[in-house]
Amino acid sequence: MSDQQPGPDAPREPDAPSAPPAAASEAGTPPPPVWPAHAAPGQPAPGQPAPGQPSAPPYPGPVAYPPSTYPPAAATPGYPAAPGYAPAPGYPPYGYPPAQTTSTTAVIGLILSILSWLICPVVPAIVALVLASKSNQEIAASGGRVGGEGLNTATKIVSWINIGLYAAIAVILGAIFLIAIVAGAASGN
């Protein structure tokens, strides 16, 4: 071979070792840094500002927005409403569920079922059961605006216990009366 160096377009010889730059460094030392691409003469390097220019555009400061034409935001549950906020008439405040009222029929039915223990045993209990059924229909038709299911359940329980207890008492008294009649008829022979 000759002592001449091959040119950049010359083919490489197959026996010439080619190692990446990282393999050429010693063990334990980091590879040499990779430098960014160079710019043309007279131009700044990529990512660098031009000479005489600031490194970043100046901060413009706070932006003043025009006043909003929307109404102020409503309160989040647990927080006060924004000043000047008023919900539309007939609608609950934004973020709150609609107000639920208790069925008056359910309240009256519960009162009658309790009074059936104190005043007249069976009649108020039967009226309370009818009112509880009517109240359940009212609650179902309201779409969640009227409540009182728990009162109706209590009314039914108290009324049925009352009716059952007095029915058992009536059966026992009837049996005693029947036994007394049969015993009187047997002793009169």
Question: What does this protein structure show overall?
Answer:
The chain has 189 residues and is mostly helical. 41% of the residues lie in helices and 2% in strands. The protein has helices at residues 21-24, 104-118, 123-142, 149-187; strands spanning 101-102, 146-147. Strands 1-2 form a two-stranded parallel sheet. Helix 2 (104-118) runs parallel beside helix 4 (149-187). It is elongated. The mean pLDDT is 75.
SSE diagram, text form:
Layout: H1 21-24, E1 101-102, H2 104-118, H3 123-142, E2 146-147, H4 149-187
Parallel strand pairs: 1-2
Helix pairs in contact: 2-3, 2-4, 3-4
Helix content: 40-55%
Q: Please tally the helical runs, counting DSSP H or I stretches of 4 or more residues.
A: 4
Major sheet: arrangement of strands: 1-2
Write the element-wise H/E pattern from the N-terminal end onward: HEHHEH
Shape: elongated
Radius of gyration: 47 Å
